[in-house]
Design a protein that fits this description.
Layout (H helix, E strand, L loop, with lengths): L6 H6 L29 E11 L11 H7 L3 E9 L3 E6 L13 H18 L4 E6 L4 E7 L2 H16 L13 H12 L5 E6 L6 H13 L1 E8 L11 E5 L4 E5 L3 H19 L1 H4 L4 E5 L4 H9 L10
Parallel strand pairs: 3-4, 3-6, 6-7, 7-10
Antiparallel strand pairs: 1-2, 4-5, 8-9
Length: about 300
């Protein structure tokens, strides 16, 4: 199981950062479809489509080669190319150091952040990050360069390597809201904010902060979770530990089993409900599966073809 990530692994993800886009003009079936188009300063024009000429169209946009071939006028339609900076918010708190299958939640957060960083730079936009744990936050300013991506990945790896089962770090669920407040001070408008976290500590205050951020930015929540959150093992007993104390859970007891699942289900449903209540996409990413494949499945460009990538 992948307890940790490393810089080489995150760099290699640049070759998997394809088959999806983080731009607002998503395919119909994408989770981001219908999000508002950010009103940001354009750098130029992107060719979008050819269509038949209608009265009032700019004659300078007529594609004469296609017009001659089709024997009727066609115009080239362009959409504004938008400079949208992206801020990655990467959770590396001690609560993220858990996983029962392929990798830890902390590794999933690191991988989705790396995929997003590479994709943003490939699309020609600026990218920055706030990588945080229970005691500190490291900020990388938003710039449009490969060096910036490498700096972000290095900060993620540094914090990821600090995680361990016997860590003296005390869990601080309030850190999530503290970091979101910092993000709001940096991303005032027209940014894309990608949050990779299990959202431990999320409450009404978190909801309010996300709503505030989404009013002038685009926000994507990448919810990292472990399969144990939705399905308990068939074992009669399970021992869990926070590095200091151990608790034996009697999973054979139907009441105990139900209470654990109910609590987990309520928490997951609360976070997933942000998508409908706040209009913020929430992407559930499991520790049991390949992260790049999950991202492509959720944000894939091939969704409009009815394919499940």
């Amino acid at each position: 199981m992948g307890a940790y990530t490393d810089l080489d692994a995150l760099i290699a993800l640049q070759f998997k950062a394809q088959g999806f886009t983080l731009k607002h003009n998503q395919p119909v079936h994408s989770l981001l479809f219908g999000r508002r188009a950010s009103h940001v300063r354009g750098r130029g024009l992107d060719f979008e489509e050819l269509r038949g000429y209608v009265s009032g169209d700019d004659v300078r946009r007529i594609d004469w080669r296609v017009t001659a071939r089709m024997q009727k006028p066609y115009v080239r339609v362009y959409s504004e190319e938008r400079d949208r900076p992206t801020m990655l918010v990467v959770d590396q708190r001690i609560n993220m150091f858990f996983g029962s299958r392929r990798s830890m939640k902390s590794v999933v957060a690191a991988e989705v952040a790396a995929l997003a960083a590479w994709r943003v730079v490939q699309q020609g936009d600026r990218v920055g990050a706030m990588v945080f744990n229970d005691s500190s936050t490291e900020e990388v300013r938003m710039r449009r360069s490969r060096a910036t991506v490498l700096r972000i990945l290095d900060r993620i790896c540094n914090q990821n390597r600090l995680l361990r089962g016997d860590s003296p770090a005390q869990p601080r669920p309030e850190r999530l809201d503290e970091v979101l407040k910092s993000v709001g001070r940096v991303c005032r408008h027209d940014a894309l904010i990608v949050i990779a976290s299990d959202f431990d500590g999320a409450g009404p205050g978190t909801r309010d902060l996300l709503l505030h951020l989404s009013r002038s930015n685009d926000v994507i929540c990448c919810l990292t979770y472990d399969p144990l959150a939705v399905r308990l093992p068939p074992a009669e007993q399970l021992v869990v530990s926070n590095g200091e104390l151990q608790v034996e859970l009697r999973l054979g007891d139907a009441t105990v089993r139900k209470s654990i699942l109910d609590a987990s289900d309520q928490r997951m449903r609360g976070i997933l409900s942000w998508q409908h209540e706040l209009g913020i996409p929430v992407l559930p990413l499991s520790t049991a599966d390949d992260v790049a494949s999950q991202v492509r499945h959720l944000l894939g460009q091939f969704a409009h073809l009815g394919q499940h990538v």
